[in-house]
Amino acid sequence: MNETSNDFEKNYHAYNGSKLEYSSSESGFYARIPGLRNIPDIGGEPNKIDTTDLDNTEYETNMYGLKPAQAYSFEFNMQDPSAEANIKLASDLEDADTYYWFKLTYANGIEIKFESKVKTTILGGNSGDLIGFQMHLAPKNEPERTIPTSASL
Questions:
Q1: How many angstroms separate the most distant Cα atoms in the chain?
Q2: Tens place of pLDDT for every residue, the chain, 153 residues?
Q3: Which end of the chain lies in a sparser environment, N or C, as judged by fewer CB atoms within 10 Å?
Q4: Beta-carbon neighbour count of residue 110 at 10 Å?
């Protein structure tokens, strides 16, 4: 196979174009939350369960257990306050104190879906910084990951 540098570059995507959306039901309409600035790590290293016994003479042994409970903090650039602003939307989701479905779609098509309540933090900053906020989400159950297998994204 003769790969040119252009072919090689097509195999990777930047985060630009990724989006976070929410819905009141898993199969309902998902609305995008604008202004997403960064995406937290999704997943994590599983806890280790010690399997060392007296047969071990030099090294401890272990096996993977469960992954720690997930908690995600998404940062947003804050839109100027209005009825449609992202900060108003996030605040309304928090005030509702109910679970919503969230769908994180990366620019390469990978999707992560989970159900969570919303908490928010208005971020501090300095002169010249954009005003921002964070949405804190803690999945109620294990997040669902979908990796597309289509060659055309």
A1: 67
A2: 455 555 555 678 899 999 999 999 999 999 999 999 999 999 889 999 999 999 999 999 999 999 889 999 999 999 999 999 999 999 999 999 999 999 999 999 999 999 999 999 999 999 999 999 999 999 999 999 999 987 555
A3: N
A4: 16
Residues 6+ apart with CB under 8 A from 47: 64, 65, 66, 67, 68
Residue 79 CB coordination number (10 Å): 16
First-residue to last-residue Cα distance in the chain: 22
Residue corresponding to tokens 């570059």: 9
Q: How far from 119 is each of 12, 70, 115, CA to CA, in Å?
A: 33, 14, 13
8 Å CB contact between 23 and 104: no
Domains along the chain with CATH numbers: 13-40+70-146 (4.10.410.40)
Give the whole-angstrom CA distance, residue 138 versus residue 83. Answer: 26
Q: Mind giving me the DSSP string for 38-85?
A: E----S-PPPEEE---TT-SS---EEE-PPPPP-EEEEEEPPPSSTT-
In which element (H, E) is residue 90 found?
helix 86-96
